[in-house]
């Protein structure tokens, strides 16, 4: 059958909307071979959410969830292999992002769980995980990591590009057309995390499909300006963030002085995501003429995409579908690539993005 060519990427992000599994070939260029989405049981999701905030008995809970997630990641991988009839001999390695439960770069630590020992044991495939901490050890933020992948796949000499991933958090990558210019990238702030949390509380619905509910409301400009005062939005890159900052309790505290209608809160949160993205572009990205390629769950929010286009009237806003890679599978493909980089002893970070002292090989290898 030849030498192994396929890498599998596993991604479970801050949105907790499921585990994305992508089988990818990189010979000679990226090809998305097969995909699978595995739901996270509600009971497990609640345990993960519990671990993202301080609480009681955290170590025991983390240990149990670490095992359960490892088993679920392995199940998701095996489901893709079985459903697509893939030959395990052709799969070189699995790259597992893991589930982030704490990201505190200000204290030089980040923590992802989902035991890679269990993934390797239950799939019979070498697994690479723990991608972020080596970058932190080198003085970086440990995030975002996908810009190095974006640089390899999407950079072109024809035009400046910005890749925007809208998952739970939103992060962007600036890819200048001039090859000698540095790639830039950072987390702009919340992506879907606050919108999802609010609609779950208000309507017992996991997300606002197409941004339909937000579209029925009106942005509360006073509330929006209050939210925009958060110091994170005014910090210079490199920077990264997570649920430690953006969560329902924080939002509830900010809403106390207001009597904003529920749909108007949703509209305001959508505008918060759009504004923090476009404000970041206008402030930190040197190019004024670029193509904005959007991926992640937020790329399917029509109201959000329209708002981004309104705020960037002179630039094309579209999804990465238009550039040849399905927007829903971008991050899973990125961690397949990061596994490949690790296996080949090649660097996986971008110091110009994370602030690390230099390029580093990322990830720990769990061999079979």
Word description of this protein:
The protein has 368 residues and is α/β, with parallel strands linked by helices. It has two domains: 6-142 and 329-366, ATPase, nucleotide binding domain (Nucleotidyltransferase, domain 5, 2-Layer Sandwich), CATH 3.30.420; 146-323, Nucleotidyltransferase, domain 5, CATH 3.30.420. The protein is 38% helix and 21% strand. Helix 10 packs across helix 11.
Q: Note the beta-strand portion.
A: 15-25%
Order of helices and strands: EEEHHEEHEHHEEEHHHHHEHEHHE
Number of separate domains? 2
CATH class term of the largest domain? Alpha Beta
Largest sheet: 7 strands, mixed
CATH superfamily of the largest domain: ATPase, nucleotide binding domain
| Inertia-based shape | globular
Taking the alpha carbons of the first and last residues, their distance comes to: 19 Å
Please identify, by name, the CATH architecture of the largest domain: 2-Layer Sandwich
Topology at a glance:
Elements lengths: L5 E7 L6 E7 L5 E8 L3 H10 L6 H27 L6 E14 L4 E5 L2 H8 L3 E3 L3 H5 L8 H9 L6 E6 L2 E7 L8 E7 L2 H11 L8 H5 L4 H7 L20 H8 L6 H23 L6 E5 L6 H10 L4 E4 L10 H14 L7 H4 L9 E3 L2
Parallel strand pairs: 1-4, 4-6, 7-10, 10-11
Antiparallel strand pairs: 1-2, 2-3, 4-5, 6-12, 7-8, 8-9
Helix pairs in contact: 1-2, 2-3, 6-10, 8-10, 10-11
Short description:
The chain has 368 residues and is of the alpha/beta class. Helices cover 38% and strands 21% of the residues. It folds into 2 domains: 6-142 and 329-366, ATPase, nucleotide binding domain (Nucleotidyltransferase, domain 5, 2-Layer Sandwich), CATH 3.30.420; 146-323, 2-Layer Sandwich (Nucleotidyltransferase, domain 5), CATH 3.30.420.
């Amino acid at each position: 059958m030849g030498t192994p060519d396929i890498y599998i990427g596993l991604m479970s992000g801050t949105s907790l909307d499921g585990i994305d599994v992508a089988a990818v070939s990189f010979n000679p260029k990226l090809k998305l071979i097969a995909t699978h989405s595995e739901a996270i049981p509600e009971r497990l999701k609640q345990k993960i959410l519990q671990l993202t905030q301080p609480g009681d008995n955290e170590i025991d809970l983390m240990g149990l969830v670490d095992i359960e997630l490892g088993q679920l990641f392995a199940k998701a991988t095996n489901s893709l292999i079985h459903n697509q009839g893939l030959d395990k001999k052709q799969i070189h390695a699995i790259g597992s992002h893991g589930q982030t439960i704490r990201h505190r770069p200000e204290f030089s630590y980040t923590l992802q769980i989902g035991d890679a020992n269990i993934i390797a044991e239950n799939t019979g495939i070498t697994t690479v995980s723990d991608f972020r901490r080596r970058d932190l050890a080198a003085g970086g933020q440990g995030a975002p990591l996908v810009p190095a992948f974006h640089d390899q796949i999407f950079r072109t000499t024809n035009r400046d590009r910005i890749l925007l991933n809208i998952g739970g958090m939103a992060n962007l990558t600036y890819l200048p057309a001039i090859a000698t210019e540095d790639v830039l990238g950072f987390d702009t702030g919340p992506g879907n995390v606050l919108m999802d949390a609010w609609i779950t509380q208000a309507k017992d619905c996991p997300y606002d499909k197409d941004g339909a509910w937000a579209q029925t409301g009106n942005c509360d400009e006073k509330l929006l300006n209050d939210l925009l005062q958060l110091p994170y939005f005014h910090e210079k890159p490199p920077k990264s963030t997570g649920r430690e900052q953006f969560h329902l309790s924080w939002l509830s505290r900010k809403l106390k002085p207001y009597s904003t209608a529920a749909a108007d809160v949703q509209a305001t949160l959508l505008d918060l995501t759009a504004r923090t993205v476009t404000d970041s572009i206008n402030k930190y990205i040197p190019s004024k003429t670029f193509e904005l390629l959007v991926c992640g769950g937020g790329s399917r929010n029509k109201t959000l995409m329209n708002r981004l286009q309104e705020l960037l009237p002179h630039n094309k806003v579209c999804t990465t579908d238009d550039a040849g890679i399905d927007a829903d599978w971008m991050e899973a493909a990125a961690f397949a690539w990061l596994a490949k980089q690790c296996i080949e002893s090649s660097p996986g970070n971008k110091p110009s993005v994370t602030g690390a002292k230099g390029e580093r090989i990322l990830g720990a290898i769990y061999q079979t």
